[in-house]
């Protein structure tokens, strides 16, 4: 008989197989930390780079928003290792941030260095 199933229906019966616990005994799963509100992220980035508070189109603000989403998804993927759809979304966000950083670097190296320093990116 297999450790994974009891009987022919493939269902685990609580208490009959060592190592399995009932739903009541299991601790609740933790979710990744929620994203901070978008307007707070925009406001903090705008204040750091002397931009208008409603300026959502500047590359610095977009990079900051992408970094917040990347941090959130990174925690999610650490918990849910087999969630390949979220992993692909994470890779796409990282690529988009990479392209924005390249754009800022090509146009103004000082702005690029300021963004990297403010966000603590390893580049």
Write a structural description.
- With 123 residues, the protein is mostly helical.
- The chain has a domain at 38-119: Orthogonal Bundle (Helix Hairpins), CATH 1.10.287.10.
- Helices cover 54% and strands 0% of the residues.
- It contains four helices and no strands.
- The chain has helices spanning 38-48, 59-79, 84-107, 109-119.
- α3 packs antiparallel against α4.
- The longest helix is centred in the last third of the chain and has 24 residues, at 84-107.
- The radius of gyration is 22 Å and the shape is elongated.
- The protein starts with 37 loop residues before the first helix and ends with a helix.
- The model has no long low-confidence stretch (mean pLDDT 82).
Main beta sheet, described? none
Distance between the termini: 54 Å
Q: What's the shape?
A: elongated
Average of pLDDT: 82
Q: What is the level 1 CATH name of the domain at 38-119? A: Mainly Alpha
Annotated CATH homologous superfamily of the domain at 38-119: S15/NS1, RNA-binding
**Hey, roughly how much beta strand do the residues contain?**
under 5%
Order of helices and strands: HHHH
Number of strands: 0
Unreliable residue runs:
none
In DSSP terms, counting alpha (H) and pi (I) runs of 4 or more, how many helices?
4
CATH topology of the domain at 38-119: Helix Hairpins
Radius of gyration: 22 Å
- Approximately how much helix is present in the residues? 40-55%
Specify the structural class.
Answer: mainly alpha
Overall CATH architecture of the domain at 38-119: Orthogonal Bundle
SSE inventory with pairings:
Elements: H1 38-48, H2 59-79, H3 84-107, H4 109-119
Helix pairs in contact: 1-2, 2-3, 2-4, 3-4
């Amino acid at each position: 008989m297999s450790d994974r199933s009891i009987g022919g229906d493939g269902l685990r019966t609580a208490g009959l197989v060592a190592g399995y616990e009932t739903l009541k005994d299991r601790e609740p799963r933790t979710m990744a930390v929620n994203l901070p509100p978008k307007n707070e992220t925009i406001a903090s980035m705008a204040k750091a780079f002397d931009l208008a508070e409603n300026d959502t189109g500047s590359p610095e603000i977009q990079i900051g928003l992408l970094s917040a989403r990347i941090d959130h998804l990174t925690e999610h993927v650490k918990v849910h290792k087999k969630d390949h759809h979220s992993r692909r979304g994470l890779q796409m966000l990282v690529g988009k941030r990479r392209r924005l950083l390249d754009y800022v670097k090509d146009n103004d190296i000082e702005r690029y260095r300021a963004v990297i320093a403010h966000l603590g990116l390893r580049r």
